[in-house]
Amino acid sequence: MTVARLKSISAFDGAQFASTEGVAIRELDGMGIATVLARKGQSSALAARLRGRYGMELPNGPKLTNANGITLLGQGPGTWLALREGGGNEFALSLRDAIGGLASVADQSDGLAVVQVSGARVREALCKLFAVDLDARAFQVGDVAATPAGHVGATLWRVEDAQGCASFGIAVHRSFAASFRDHLVEAAR
Amino acid sequence: MSAYRLQQGGLVDRRQPLTFRFDGREMQGYTGDTLASALLGSGVRLVGRSFKYHRPRGILTAGSEEPNALVELRTGARREPNTRATTIELFDGLEASSQNRWPSLAFDLGAVNSLLSPFFVAGFYYKTFMWPAAMWEKLYEPLIRRAAGLGKASTEPDPDSYERAHAFCDVLVVGAGPAGLAAALGAGRSGARVILCDEDFLPGGRLNSDRREIDGIIGAQWAREAAAELAAMPNVRLLTRTSVFGVYDGNTYGAIERVSDHLPVPSAHQPRQRYWKIVARRSIVAAGAIERPIAFGGNDRPGVMMSSAVRTYLNRFGVAAGHRAAVFTATDDGWKTAIDLADAGVSVEAIVDARNEVTASNKSAAKRIGARLVAGGRVIETTGGLSGVTVKDGSELVQLSVDLLAVSGGWNPTMALSTHIGGRPRWRPELSAFVAGEALPPGMALVGAAAGSLGLADALREGEAAGAAAAESTGFKAATPTPCRADDEQTGVAAFWHVAESRGKAFVDFQHDVTAEDIALANREGYRSVELLKRYTTLGMATDQGKTSNVTGLAILASLTERSIPEVGTTVFRPPFSPVSLGALVGPHRGRALKPTRFTSGHAWATERGAIFVEAGQWMRAQWFPAPGENDWIESVNREVKAVRSGVGVCDVSTLGKIDIQGADAAMFLDRVYCNMFSTLAAGKVRYGLMLREDGMVFDDGTTAHIAPGRYVMSTTTANAAKVMQHLEHARQVTWPDLDVQVVSVTDQWSQYSLAGPDSRRVLERLLGGALDVGNEAFPYMACAEFTWRGVPARLFRISFSGELAYELAVPARYGDATIRAIMDAGEEWKIVPYGTEALGVMRIEKGHVAGNELNGQTTAADLGLGRMMSTKKDFIGRILSQRPGLMAPDRPALVGLKPIDRAARLRAGAHFLPLGAEARMENDEGYVTSVAFSPMAGTWIGLGLLKNGPRRHGERVRAYDPVRNGDIEVEIVPPVFVDPEGARLKG
């Protein structure tokens, strides 16, 4: 009996997102993702710990911060999503070591499907999924929204422009990936 | 070309002819035409038959208010009934047909209704079909439904797609006529985000229809330049073919963009229509005004047309709607039509002005164009289709031979949007019209004709000022206004509604065939409130929502009851302003996309295995896995159950809700949300938990594992996962905000498989390869552990739903596919069998485990035989109300097992229990069968049910009576555990 490592299949299973003019969609696989829920009365201690350990600020409100490869997205009061590119399931464990006691940490590296969407027509596509004002002045780099994408619950955030075009991250629960992909691809056409 | 299309002039492109068919006849129009203008240009005047009397009808207007010219557009799956010819943009190959006629438009048998018209008066349905009441459902209603309605919708699935989109702006401008264009320019030049919507395909509104000048430029040209300037602004979105149909709370507006309605077939990936939800900080309604008809005898004949529409066909489309015209007017606007017609070479026989006083300039205009002037005149009758009109000139009756009668009865400002969230219109006597009231939707302003300012100069000035003001109020600096100069005009109007001396039917509501006499009759019968009048006569209740008829109907009722119009009432508009197709509202969410579908990581594998899937909420779950040669589901399910009970099976249980619970007070929190105790649960152990609702009924059940010190994982039923999550969040945030507890759903993080059966431990040992000691000592029943397996974090729970020795293995979802394949490999030696929800259901019934059928919101813990789980040592949600006398009653139906006396008989869930020999009446009802299954272990059908005093009646016989499926069998009441009642297998 072999004891080879189990084969990993990403949420979108390497599906090619039909590339359309002006909208580029890319799955971000292998990210370490964890929910960070502040323990009661520990938000400032948590902020101080994160500052000391990772040199990053804890976002207040629907904003994101990043430092040293880690991104924190504000999802709700006392609720954040922590992301680390390539972090895998180990990320949640290391985060728990770092902030356990000040926050409840739960691994979501497999629970969330994440895409990055960018391009000249990205807002035209996303306005068909999100009831959020995505204008450059209204939804700025670093803004976050916890909001439905069509009929699927999602977290949306705006990252630095890519090649002069607005760029957004979107996370949905993994079991909804196929439905979300269908809607997103249709909206991008 | 026909004699009706002018040689030149208008905004159609004569170099681009288009071919279309109406009632099978091939005709020609031009790019820039509507179907209505192309029909008129081709000499077609008879377009449809009216709703009730099947009277011949033509084209009354040139806009979305059209009540008469309703056609069936397109054919096959794209057939659309009741489409207004005035709003259809002509395309090459368009096919349309007339409605409500048989066998043909020219010869319509239904027109006999016109002869029977004394029977079709107001309140006709109520009077004729009242008695006997029993006839209503079977005879009258089907009869009325067949006779009523105009066109027929396609019954085929819509081949097109629809889109939903969201937009946000500082200033929304509704209407791209002169006022709207000026408003959009005023706001847009400041840098504010502006959305300008117009229902037409060509911006400009009346500027395209009238011969006007702005700043010395022809009006249509000015509009084109304004639209081009707006389109070039990056902060402005110009949406043509877009109707803003409704206003909603939160500064929200609904709009429909007809993206592809003007094309034969939408291009690839283009939707047919797009439903916009627009959130606008300010809105400017510049929707213009609708010209109203006058009620006079025979005012519905083809050839009788609104005066402004006559000018639109003439000036915009280059079509003379007739060769010999007369004008019947109560306004100065009607005179413009007479002059334009004459200038285009149409003979104007007469101008009948209902006003006694005619201005000097109008008098000289009549003279210049050689038209007979009838001041204080009335049209009382029309003949033919159309061939003549009878005019009352003082005491004299004059016959005029004309084929076109232009009617101008004044203007009703289009202020519908101002009333959608509660505003009431206000009567302006000097305009004889309703305008928007004081209380407007937040951020809304009305300008131009929509605000009752009928002159072009006023519209431009108000539009620009409102645009600048809206921009300023949203934080932008508006440029200094550059007022546009318009040429002078007269906008006089008199209140004139109805020709009392009419001969023949004088129509008020053309689409619903409501006449002035119907209103008089309603008044005589006591229906004097405007709301009753509307419902009794159906005035204003057609698809045009009374755009051309409501105010006239109100005015006639006011005159009959000798009250003023505002005393009689107002008309309030509700959304939508114009019809909205359901497809656009549904958008992409149709068919399988109605709701999102959720898949487990094992789905692809199960599909490969030929699984039959079932929808469980949004999830797709494997229901059973047919083996080669199996034709009946019950064969497969029996095989799966037997395999689990005698060997080993595997089932994907990833869909069950999983909630991560942490925090210093997590154990206390669990004590409060479950009715049984959890604070005594040691780390590394799992416990079954029962949750009650606040009202004392059972809410959900599942297990919670103390997976590591201070960290818990709760499982819920698949059906209640989201509800339990909400419940916990509410308890945590609202009920006990003082507790230190955090909860988050981790349902999607983990793929979870249940390995069940006497051989499950052997398979697991092979699978894990020493990663965890799963021996009975090290890992007893109700143990749990976190460990690393093949480099991935995994969890194992020794829990069982089937009653067999069983484990649930959880791995991160990305490894779910590999894990089920590895389980199948490891189990090969023991002939492991995958099983689905049906086998799972059979086994839980065999074990008497309750599920959704029993956890139905009407059962208590005691009803389900779980009363002893309710702790007396602590408080919990539902404790107090579970002690209500009704819930404590000893004879409440409670859980029992059932077996048919005739071992071959089939049990049916839903059958009711009756004592043997008792009559099948409600008084004798003793409960019902909740779940049934064929038990391959027992070799018979078995069931669970809720029976009065059930637990004390084991061994008794009752009737299971099922009148719905003609079932009536005798059953034996037994304990609700059919397999391994001691539970020895669990711990083996």
Task: Walk me through what this model shows.
- The complex is a heterodimer of chains A (189) and B (988).
- Chain A is an alpha+beta fold and 189 residues long.
- Chain A folds into two domains: 24-28 and 111-187, Probable tRNA modification gtpase trme, domain 1 (Gyrase A, domain 2); 32-107, 2-Layer Sandwich (Alpha-Beta Plaits), CATH 3.30.70.1520.
- Chain A contains four helices and ten strands, in the order ββαβββαββαβββα.
- Chain A has helices spanning 43-54, 90-99, 122-126, 177-187, and strands at residues 24-27, 32-38, 64-67, 70-76, 79-84, 103-107, 112-118, 144-149, 152-162, 165-173.
- A five-stranded antiparallel β-sheet of chain A has the order 1-7-10-9-8. A five-stranded antiparallel β-sheet of chain A has the order 3-4-5-2-6.
- Chain A is globular and about 45 Å long.
- The mean pLDDT of chain A is 94.
- With 988 residues, chain B is an alpha+beta fold.
- Chain B folds into seven domains: 1-156, Ubiquitin-like (UB roll) (Roll), CATH 3.10.20.440; 162-290 and 413-473, FAD/NAD(P)-binding domain, CATH 3.50.50.60; 293-409, FAD/NAD(P)-binding domain (3-Layer(bba) Sandwich); 507-568, Arc Repressor Mutant, subunit A (Orthogonal Bundle); 603-654 and 751-779 and 790-814 and 823-843, Probable tRNA modification gtpase trme, domain 1 (Gyrase A, domain 2); 657-745, 2-Layer Sandwich (Alpha-Beta Plaits); 883-987, Aminomethyltransferase beta-barrel domains (Elongation Factor Tu (Ef-tu), domain 3, Beta Barrel).
- Helix content of chain B is 22%, strand content 27%.
- Chain B has 23 helices and 49 strands.
- In chain B, strands 8, 9, 12, 13, 14, 15 and 28 form a seven-stranded mixed β-sheet that branches. In chain B, strands 40-41-42-39-33-43 form a six-stranded mixed β-sheet.
- The radius of gyration of chain B is 38 Å and the shape is elongated.
- The model of chain B has no long low-confidence stretch (mean pLDDT 94).
- Chains A and B meet through strand 2, strand 6 and helix 4 of A and strand 8 and helix 21 of B.
